[in-house]
Design a protein that fits this description.
The structure is a homodimer. By secondary structure, the first copy, chain A, is of the alpha/beta class. The first copy, chain A, has eleven helices and eleven strands. In chain A, α4 runs parallel beside α5. The longest helix of chain A is centred in the C-terminal third of the chain and has 26 residues. An eleven-stranded mixed beta sheet of chain A has the order 3-2-1-4-11-10-5-6-9-7-8, sandwiched between helices. Chain A starts with a strand and ends with a helix. Chain A folds into two domains: about 160 residues, Isopropylmalate Dehydrogenase; about 160 residues, Isopropylmalate Dehydrogenase, CATH 3.40.718. At the A-B interface, α8 and α9 of A face α8 and α9 of B.
Chain lengths: ~350, ~350
C-alpha cells in the first residue's frame, strides 16, 4: 500500500531510551519508504543520537521537544498530574491532534495506559481499554488479550475484547474470520467462573468466529490453532508471565546441561548453530509490541527492556495497524455491534 | 521413621488403569519396607496384573474388590449418584474408615474431588478444598495452590490456602518456615484485584512467612525462591496449563531444529545424552502428584496420563504426607489460627 504513515516515538521511554528507540525506529524507516517518524523527547539528546546514527535532516525524521521523562516507577496518577510535558504525553498528544497516526512507547505500562486513556479517550461503546499481544505457538502464533489492563472483567468486557481483538487480528494476520477462544479451566461447558460462562453466551450469539473454551495450553500449544484468545487481564497477565518464567527456566536448565563438563561444553560448540535456529523460532523479541485497544488512536507499548530488534518489532506493529486503519475499523465494528443489539 | 503406612490405590483410575497403577505402586513397595498397599478395583484383573509382576500374596499387598469404574468424562454429580461401588469411591471409603492412611487416584479430577469431599468431609474451619502441586523452578522447585478446585476465591479462602499449603510444604520440604507469596499482576501494593489486596492484609498480620506479591514468572523462575505461591484456582489452573503449553512448544521447536537436515540430525545424535540430562531436570513425571488439601483424610491425585515413573511419584508424595501426619497437622494449625482469631 502507498498510504503514508507518521509514527510518534517516545524516544526517552524504556530502560535504554534513545540508545534503543532511535536506531530501532531508523531501521523501520529504511524498510518502509512511506513511513515518517517524530522523535519526542530531549531535542539535544535526540539530535546527538540521530547524528551518531548518520541520520541527515530529512522530511521523514522530525523531532518534537519535550522537557520531562516518565520513570519506570512513576505512578500513573503522578504522571497524569505532574508530567504534562513528558515525551510520553507529548507523543500521545501528537496522535490526538492528528499530527501522528500512532505512538510507540517503551515507557511504564500503567502510566502509558492512563495517559493514553486520558488524552485520546475511549471509543464510544467500549468500557475499558485492553492490551493485546502475540505469542509464538506450535501453530505459528496466537493473539491474546487482555494482558493486564483490567482486573475483574465481566462478561460484557470479555465480549468487547473479542470484538476489538478480532478486528486487530484480521489486519495483522490478513485473515477474514479469525477463530476466537475464551480462556477457561476446562473445555466443558459447566466449567469456569460466572464471568466466563456468561461471556460464552454472548460470544455464541455474535458474529465472531467463536470456537468455545480453550485451556492455558492453547496459548502456546493446545490441540488446534486459535487465532485469538480472550481472557481477563489478571489471568492473561499471570499466564503471560508464567510462560516467560517457564521459558527462562528451560533456558537455564539447557545451559546448565551444556555447561556441565568439558565433554558437554564440546557438544555445546557443535549444537550452538542449531540452537540459534531454534531460539529464533521462539525469540520473544520478535513478538515484542502490545497494542492498547479501545482508544481513539493507535498506541503500541514496547517491553521496557526491549533492545533494537525488539523495539523495531513494536514499531512495525504500529505501521501495520496504521496501514490497515485498525482503530477506525474497530470503532466501526463496535458501532455496528451496538446498533444490531439495539435493533 | 518406622511408622507403617497403608495406601489405598485406585487401581482402575487413569488412562492406563492397572497397567500403570500396579507396577508403579509395587516399585514404591520395594523402596519402603513400612509401606502396605490396598489395590481397589476389579479383583480378577488386579490379581492377574499382580501375578504378571511376579507379586506373591503378601501381608503388604491386598486387594479390595470394586465393581465399577469412574470414566474420565463422567460428571462429578453422576459419579456421586451412580458409582458408589467404583474403585475411586471404595478407595476413599477405606481412608474414611481408617483402613488406609491415604488414597492415590489417577481418575478424573472433578469426580475425585467431589467424592473425596462427600466421603471424607472438610476440616472444620476450612470452607473449600484446594489442589496443591509442585513445579520445577530455577531455584529447585515451588509449591502452588489452588490449581483448579475453586474459582472466585475470596481473600479468606486465599488465606486458608496459605495456612494449609504452609503445613504441607513444611512436611514435603522438611523446612520450618516456608516463604509464602501471593500471585498478582505486579509486585506493587496498589496492583491487583480486590481479593488479592484484601488477602494481602490477612497474610501480613498472620503467623505465615509472607513475602508479598509475586508475578507469574515466580512459578518457574522469578527473582528469588518462593516456597509456596497462593492463588485462586482459575488463575492457578490457567498458569499451570500455560506452563505446560510453553514447555511443549519449546520441545517441539527444539525437535524441529534438530530434525531440520542431515547435519542437524548428526548434531542431534551427539547432543541427545546431554539433552536427556536436561530433560530429567524438568521432567514433569517427577512432579506428578497433586494433593487435595482441606479434607479429613489424605488424597493424592495423579495425572490421568501418568506412566509408571509418574504414578510412582504420586504414591511417594502420599507416603511422605502420611509419615509427617500432614492432614492432622493442617487440622491442628487451622484450629489454632481460628482460636487466635476469636481471642
Amino acid at each position: 500500500m502507498s498510504t503514508s504513515s507518521i509514527i510518534a516515538i517516545d524516544a526517552m521511554g524504556g530502560d535504554f531510551g534513545p540508545e534503543v528507540t532511535i536506531p530501532a525506529s531508523l531501521e523501520c524507516l529504511k524498510d518502509n519508504a512511506n513511513l515518517s517518524l517524530i522523535f519526542v523527547g530531549d531535542e539535544k539528546l535526540i539530535s546527538a543520537h540521530l547524528k551518531a546514527q548518520g541520520q541527515q535532516n530529512s522530511e521523514r525524521v522530525n523531532i518534537q521537544h519535550a522537557t520531562q521523562k516518565v520513570e519506570m516507577d512513576d505512578s500513573p496518577a503522578k504522571v497524569l498530574r505532574t508530567k504534562k510535558d513528558s515525551s510520553m504525553r507529548v507523543a500521545i498528544n501528537l496522535v490526538r491532534d492528528g499530527e501522528a497516526d500512532a505512538c510507540v512507547s517503551a515507557g511504564n505500562t500503567g502510566a502509558l495506559m492512563a495517559t493514553a486513556r486520558f488524552v485520546l479517550k475511549m471509543i464510544p461503546g467500549i468500557d475499558r481499554p485492553a492490551i493485546i499481544s502475540t505469542l509464538p505457538s506450535v501453530f505459528g502464533h496466537t493473539h491474546v488479550l487482555d494482558l493486564g489492563a483490567n482486573v475483574d472483567s465481566g462478561a460484557e468486557h470479555l465480549f468487547q475484547f473479542g470484538v476489538m481483538g478480532s478486528e486487530l487480528v484480521k489486519a495483522l494476520d490478513g485473515i477474514d474470520n479469525p477463530t476466537v477462544g475464551l480462556l477457561n479451566i476446562g473445555e466443558e461447558e459447566m466449567k469456569g467462573n460466572e464471568q466466563v460462562k456468561m461471556a460464552a453466551q454472548l460470544f455464541e450469539t455474535s458474529h465472531l468466529n467463536y470456537i468455545g473454551f480453550v485451556e492455558g495450553t492453547a496459548l502456546n500449544a493446545g490441540s488446534a490453532k486459535v487465532d485469538l484468545i480472550v481472557t481477563d487481564g489478571f489471568v492473561g497477565n499471570v499466564a503471560l508471565k508464567s510462560i516467560e518464567g517457564a521459558a527462562k527456566m528451560i533456558g537455564v536448565a539447557l545451559k546448565e546441561a551444556l555447561n556441565k563438563n568439558l565433554l558437554t561444553k564440546l557438544v555445546a560448540l557443535v549444537v550452538m548453530p542449531v540452537l540459534a535456529n531454534f531460539k529464533k523460532r521462539i525469540d520473544p523479541r520478535l513478538y515484542n509490541g502490545a497494542t492498547f485497544l479501545g482508544l481513539r488512536g493507535t498506541v503500541v507499548k514496547s517491553h521496557g527492556g526491549a533492545d533494537i530488534v525488539a523495539f523495531a518489532n513494536a514499531v512495525k506493529i504500529a505501521e501495520v495497524e496504521i496501514t490497515h486503519n485498525v482503530t477506525k475499523k474497530i470503532s466501526e465494528r463496535v458501532q455496528l455491534v451496538l446498533s444490531e443489539r439495539e435493533s
